[in-house]
């Protein structure tokens, strides 16, 4: 049948379905086979020939026909999976059913009345149909997921056949799918031959699998998360392919090479089916790992009666289990090296413009990296024990710098900061940041000569001073990261030192301090950074010490901050004359060490009008994101009780509550936190060094700042400073707030990836809102 004839034949079948007023029985195979037998159409064809309006019309006017269509399509998948897809006609039927279900499912999920349809029990199909036992009924969803899983390891369809005897096709139920893992890597040493047809078929099935999982998009976000029954079944022990599927997905992602042999523009001349598969594998993997905080004992009152049976007793998520149990160093090395290579791919510079393929799934890669570090602590420690962590840090900072002004990339900045917060909770991260930053990546930031710590501070400063306004909730998170690493930073550059002091200048301005009951926390964080460096890394940080001396008026102004009502009201008048904190107050004051020039011609990615954007759930405050630990002399960390941590220098969760609930006046609120400003160490430093610097300038007639820096470089404050305070580290702690944020962010990315053909576009999703910027 020619392609045009196939389209016409298929379209007639769709019209018949939409115009029939009477139910079509499931036994009328001649009618139903029109949708998949001898149908040779692409996914784009099927999406065009089955319009959204007609799917909704059948759903409302002939619901029994839509239900039977879904049942018959699943039945065909099950039968062909059981038979092993022995001929091309069967394989084409599988692809047609797969594409048709991918098209229809979102319109079933969007209607609450259909929500439990796939979890209603129906007679089993396939080889189990004739068993005649009590297990002959099962939810349609389980049959569909089982068939997809079987088909993903079907010889000569999605995997290479090891042997095919003259007796006919082997029984697919007897196949050990662990022998058919798609790619070498973790737990599998054999590299199967590359087969573009198999990759294409795998991609079609994974897209249907993602569509099944996407039922979660059509439920309103809530702090109490209801487990996704599709993911629960797929990742449970009831899926006999769980281990080879997990391994295949992970290895395909990590082994993907977008550059190949490096032939310029090869990605424009040849289709990259492995790239399509790698992206879908990555998305399927991160969604399958999305159940780690689920308490199965709490499921079901909000699920349909039919769902209770299928999900409440399912057991643990095997994908999470497998990920958390990876432990071999060679596996860690493989994963970290390949994720680092892929994250650095968009940073590649070539002489010929656009001659090298750039991946677009870096956001999903960051989600996978987050899950690896969060769920597998051995992997986290492996990442931090060598300088390889910097191969992850640099691309993350590149993405943050590149996207901070783009509203459509707010989620990307969040995930990057979250990963750095997780890493900063470990001492080794701060130590690794002292490595010189020599491999220059094109970023629109100030030029500096220094370490990776300087790069971190310069990029964070850019986000705060010129990033999008929706990034303001991340300010305390970014400063917490700097606080965590500050006791280990041996030598900040002058540029980075001045960036920190500029932030203090901005955040300590009276109008900013008084315009919000929580803004003073930012000043506390910065003061803690300065105190940590002075107390623990004074010798090498003469640039910062010199900057503190030059900006000493800032600290004196903080110490003498007015707390009377008139002064507060006068300062707030400045707030009313501006619309946001992103105004002239963020402009850096001119000094010889702050330069506006960037590292080469590279400029930040501009915001494109008309861009679609998915809304995000609000992230928890920093005191909900972290728990405070004290570092002992031997490097061990001791978790502080809440009562202890609230009395530390800058853990102010209790102060926040007091500030919001106090009724004794705004001046009393300011007086409360002003009395706790940790200025003693800095004031003592100024008391000792300012007279010394002034004297040497007068005695030697110094006008060259390099001589002052040389003097400070060899100075000491041993015995002159207060007793060093304990080092406090704020470590990320898992919580439902961030779990919900990640779910929303992850599904928002996936939704926006598939607008052509539009898998979910223009359906009534509830998990987030779609905005056009």
From TrEMBL:
Q: Where is the composition biased (Basic and acidic residues)?
A: 649-663
Taxonomy, superkingdom = Eukaryota
User: For this UniProt entry, what's an example GO CC term?
Assistant: membrane
Where is region (Disordered) located? 642-669
List the Pfam families: Hid1
The name on file for this protein is HID1 domain containing b
Q: Which organism is it from?
A: Cyprinus carpio carpio
């Amino acid at each position: 049948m020619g392609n045009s004839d196939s389209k016409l034949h298929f379209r007639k079948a769709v019209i018949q379905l939409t115009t029939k007023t009477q139910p079509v029985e499931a036994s009328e195979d001649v009618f139903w086979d029109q949708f998949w037998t001898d149908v040779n159409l692409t996914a784009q064809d099927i999406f065009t020939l089955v319009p959204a309006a007609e799917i909704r019309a059948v759903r409302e006017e002939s619901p029994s026909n839509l239900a039977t269509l879904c049942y018959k399509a699943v039945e065909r998948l099950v039968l062909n999976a059981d038979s092993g897809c022995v001929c091309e006609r069967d394989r084409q039927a599988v692809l047609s059913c797969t594409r048709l279900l991918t098209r229809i499912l979102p319109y079933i999920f969007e209607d609450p009345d259909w929500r439990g349809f796939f979890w209603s029990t129906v007679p089993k199909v396939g080889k189990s149909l004739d068993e005649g036992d009590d297990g002959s009924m099962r939810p349609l969803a389980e049959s569909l997921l089982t068939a997809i899983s079987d088909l993903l390891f079907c010889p000569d369809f999605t995997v290479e056949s090891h042997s095919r005897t003259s007796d006919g096709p082997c029984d697919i139920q007897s196949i050990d799918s662990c022998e058919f893992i798609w790619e070498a890597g973790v737990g599998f040493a054999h590299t199967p031959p590359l087969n573009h047809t198999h990759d294409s078929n795998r991609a079609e099935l994974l897209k249907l699998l993602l569509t099944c999982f996407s039922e979660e998009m059509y439920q309103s976000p809530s702090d109490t998360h209801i487990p996704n029954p599709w993911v629960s079944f797929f990742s449970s022990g009831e899926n006999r392919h769980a281990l080879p599927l997990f391994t295949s997905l992970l290895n395909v992602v990590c082994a993907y090479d977008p550059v190949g042999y490096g032939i310029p523009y090869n990605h424009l001349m040849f289709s990259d089916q492995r790239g399509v598969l790698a992206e879908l594998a990555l998305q399927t993997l991160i969604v399958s790992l999305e159940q780690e905080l689920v308490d199965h004992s709490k499921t079901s009152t909000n699920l349909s009666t039919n769902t209770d049976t299928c999900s409440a007793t399912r057991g643990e998520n095997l994908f999470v289990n497998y990920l958390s149990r990876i432990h071999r160093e060679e596996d860690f090395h493989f994963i970290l090296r390949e994720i680092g290579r892929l994250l650095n791919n968009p940073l590649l510079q070539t002489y010929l413009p656009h001659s090298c393929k750039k991946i677009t799934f870096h956001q999903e890669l960051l989600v996978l990296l987050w899950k690896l570090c969060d769920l597998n602590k051995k992997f986290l420690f492996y990442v931090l024990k060598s300088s390889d962590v910097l191969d992850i840090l640099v691309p993350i900072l590149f993405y943050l710098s590149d996207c901070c002004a783009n509203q459509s990339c707010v989620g990307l900045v969040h995930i990057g900061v979250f990963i750095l917060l997780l890493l900063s909770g470990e001492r080794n991260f701060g130590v690794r940041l002292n490595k010189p930053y020599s491999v220059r990546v094109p970023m629109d930031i100030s030029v500096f000569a220094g370490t990776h710590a300087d790069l971190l501070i310069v990029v964070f400063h850019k986000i705060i001073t010129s990033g999008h306004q929706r990034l303001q909730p991340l300010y305390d998170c970014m400063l917490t990261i700097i606080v965590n690493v500050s006791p280990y930073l041996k030598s900040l550059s002058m540029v980075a030192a001045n960036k920190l002091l500029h932030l203090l200048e901005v955040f300590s301005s009276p109008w900013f301090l008084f315009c919000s009951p929580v803004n003073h926390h930012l000043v506390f964080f910065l003061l803690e950074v300065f105190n940590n460096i002075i107390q623990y890394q004074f010798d090498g940080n003469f640039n910062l010490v010199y900057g503190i001396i030059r900006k000493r008026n800032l600290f004196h102004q903080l110490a003498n901050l007015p707390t009377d009502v008139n002064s507060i009201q006068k300062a707030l008048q400045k707030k009313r004359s501006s619309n946001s904190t992103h105004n002239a107050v963020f402009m850096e004051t001119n000094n010889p060490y702050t330069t506006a020039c960037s590292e080469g011609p590279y400029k930040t990615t501009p915001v494109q009008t008309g861009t679609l954007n998915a809304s995000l759930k609000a992230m928890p405050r920093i005191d909900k994101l972290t728990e405070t630990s004290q570092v002992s002399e031997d490097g061990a960390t001791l978790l502080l009780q809440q009562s202890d941590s609230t009395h530390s220098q800058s853990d102010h969760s209790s102060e926040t509550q007091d500030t919001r609930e106090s009724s004794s006046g705004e001046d009393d609120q300011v007086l409360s936190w002003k009395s706790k400003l940790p200025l003693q160490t800095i004031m003592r430093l100024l008391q000792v060094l300012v007279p010394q610097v002034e004297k040497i300038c007068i005695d030697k007639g110094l006008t060259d700042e390099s001589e002052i820096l040389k003097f400070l470089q060899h100075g000491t404050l041993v015995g002159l400073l207060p007793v060093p305070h304990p080092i406090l580290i704020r470590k990320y702690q898992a919580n439902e707030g961030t779990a919900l944020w990640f779910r929303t962010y992850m599904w928002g990315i996936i939704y926006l990836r598939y607008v052509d053909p539009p898998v979910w576009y223009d359906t009534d999703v509830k998990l987030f809102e779609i905005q056009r910027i």
